[in-house]
Amino acid sequence: MKIVETDNYGGDYPDEHFVRGIMPSLSKEGAKAIADILNKEKGPNSHRYYMVVKDDYKLKPGFEP
């Protein structure tokens, strides 16, 4: 499992990124624990949100003019 930073408000162009500096693949429980901590630190009104995804997840791009 991996952790993805994405748009907290469900926008059309979430500009997603994998969280770097963490092991390349984590257990589901470990990834969820880390994502929960990151989300708690950012707060509920943050523009960004961290979610747990499978290793083969395809990132959704940001807006490109």
| First-residue to last-residue Cα separation | 32 Å
- Per DSSP, the total helix count is 1
Unreliable residue runs = none
Q: How much helical structure, as a percent, in the residues?
A: 10-25%
H/E series, N to C? EEHE
| Major beta sheet summary | 3 strands, antiparallel
Shape: globular
**Total number of β-strand segments?**
3
- Give the class from helix and strand content and strand pairing: alpha+beta
Question: Would you tell me the overall average pLDDT?
Answer: 92
> What percentage of the residues does DSSP assign to strands (E)?
15-25%
Structure description:
This protein has 65 residues and is α+β, with helices and mostly antiparallel strands. It has a domain at 2-46. Helix content is 23%, strand content 22%. It has one helix and three strands, in the order E-E-H-E. It has one helix at residues 28-42; strands at 2-7, 17-18, 48-53. A three-stranded antiparallel beta sheet has the order 2-1-3. The radius of gyration is 12 Å and the shape is globular.
